[in-house]
Prior knowledge:
There is one protein chain. The protein is α+β, with helices and mostly antiparallel strands. The chain has one domain: Winged helix-like DNA-binding domain superfamily/Winged helix DNA-binding domain (Arc Repressor Mutant, subunit A). The protein contains three helices and three strands. It has a three-stranded antiparallel β-sheet. A hairpin with a 2-residue loop joins strand 2 and strand 3. Helix 2 packs across helix 3.
Amino acid sequence: xxxxxxxxxxRHAQLIGLLKKRGYCSVVEMSxxxxxxxxxxxxxxxxxxxxxxxxxxxxxxxxx
Length: 64
């Protein structure tokens, strides 16, 4: 059975919720929780950083 792909905007909403709840989360932990690759998380965090929603740190991110 093929895995359903998660929409990027859904993933962004989940990342924002996760960062709001925890304050900080590592890329590895986010990728495991959302079942996507670390590279996908880095791309998503870059987009959230450009929108000034998340502050990207070495190895993770925090809510801005």
